């Protein structure tokens, strides 16, 4: 007795995946480790700009700047 932890070894087996070369999220070229997950600084910049544009449009959507300022200065 005392083999309670024997079953754990079964779940330790994982399907071995071959390390596939990751692809650039922008242009699908093989990524450069320096710029992972992108193939180059250019693609990293492209993604960064996309991301920034997204967050800007989200932040800029509710134009409540005036309302907020108005609410804090009620006389
Ligand atoms: Zn790329």
TrEMBL record:
Keywords: Metal-binding, Zinc. Binds 1 zinc ion. One of its GO terms (biological process) is regulation of DNA-templated transcription. It comes from the Bacteria. GO terms for molecular function: DNA topoisomerase type II (double strand cut, ATP-hydrolyzing) inhibitor activity; zinc ion binding. Residues 1-22 are annotated as: Disordered. Its cofactor is Zn(2+). Zn(2+) binds at residues 24, 27, 39, 43. InterPro entries: DNA_gyrase_inhibitor_YacG, Znf_NHR/GATA. The keyword Membrane does not apply. Signal peptide: none annotated. It holds the Pfam family YacG. Belongs to the DNA gyrase inhibitor YacG family. Inhibits all the catalytic activities of DNA gyrase by preventing its interaction with DNA. Acts by binding directly to the C-terminal domain of GyrB, which probably disrupts DNA binding by the gyrase. PANTHER family: DNA GYRASE INHIBITOR YACG. Interacts with GyrB. This is DNA gyrase inhibitor YacG. It comes from Rhodoblastus acidophilus (Rhodopseudomonas acidophila). The gene is yacG.
């Amino acid at each position: 007795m005392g083999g309670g932890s024997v079953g754990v070894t079964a779940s330790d087996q994982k399907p071995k995946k071959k390390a596939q070369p990751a692809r650039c999220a922008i242009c699908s070229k093989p990524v450069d480790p320096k710029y992972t997950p992108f193939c180059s600084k250019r693609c990293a910049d492209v993604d960064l700009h996309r991301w920034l544009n997204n967050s800007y449009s989200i932040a800029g959507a509710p134009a409540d700047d005036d309302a907020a300022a108005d609410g804090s200065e009620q006389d």
